[in-house]
Amino acid sequence: MSEAASPAASGPDPARGPRAGYLDHARVGPLSRPAAAALAATAALAARLDPADLDRLFALSDASRTAAARLLDARPHEIALAPSTSNGLFTVAAALHGPGTILVPRGEFPANLYPWLRFADRGGPAVRLVDPAGQRHITPDLLRRHLTPDVTALTVSAVDSLTGHLAPLAALKEILGPDRLLIVDAIQGLGAVALEADAADILVSGGQKWLRAGWGAALLLIRDRCADRLAPGLGGWAGVAEPFASRHPAPPLPGAAAHLATNPDFPATAAIGAAIDDLFDQGGPAAVGARIRANLADLLDRARRAGADILLDGLGPHERAGIGTFRLPGHDPATVHHTLETAGLITTRRDEWIRLSPHASTPGAAADLLAEALHTLTHRTTHYPQEPTCPIN
What we know:
Aspartate Aminotransferase, domain 2, Aspartate Aminotransferase, domain 1, 11 strands, alpha/beta, 2 domains, 10 helices
């Protein structure tokens, strides 16, 4: 291994970004420079708080909602800034009252399952798990077969967190029709691929993965076309028009803001707004997504040449987002994962599978590191039994 490609030489440098072998954006994306700068600037305002500084913080939050509206083809009032993806999903689950059933694919990440389970006995819709018949994702044909009269909504991940499969949101919404809701957990897609976001009636996404905005803020989209079907279940004083009125409850604010429990984390909202602006500065979701896919394709090709099995290897170029997963037959997955880490490659292990999730800025050296590490493994003679591990989104 050359000095330039060694783990030490490619280690993290706060001034230059993540190491060359960082392939774990599906778990957490290191802060981008614009997001880090926005965090620092708003922290400085919060430390000083001259009379006009609080107004500046609110203005930055409004600017972030405007940026999010551009990204999601929405109106600014259809966007609220929640603390996290999970919080946003729980907010929606608390808002959906009345009879009905929500469909949840059995392979969904638990963050998009538990909100519906928790509120099913608290006035929310009943939960019906849909088994994708050996697949991890729901297809339009499978959805059509499960559309009984009691179904009022489908919740789905825009991108599967293990396979990288990109959900056909427009096709799913077409089958659901205007009277059933399409609810989307978009955290594994937003910033990594151009999404069919206009198909989503409700969409939630944090900024700590592909947007590289850090924790503390998530986009909560509730389109006007379905707003009257949601009661402000978690809406607090920040979600009403007259919080200091003498009579309560006060009227809810128009749009998604009606579901806010309190004011947002201002530094975090400034960071997610800066990250969205940076996404457009780099050419927008389609251009950035194309670079991510090209980097991922190179990595998967190196793994394939080393004898690896690729999960859902038959996905077409527009069916996979920024995630690819492989296993090395006959080799202990824990050893594979450790060998990659020793070589300077940061990945996630899920049971026997190794997940790769590069970004647009991932250099070609990462594919060279992967090929060299897998070559080292395949030329060893000692194999080990496989060990399970817990899932990590």
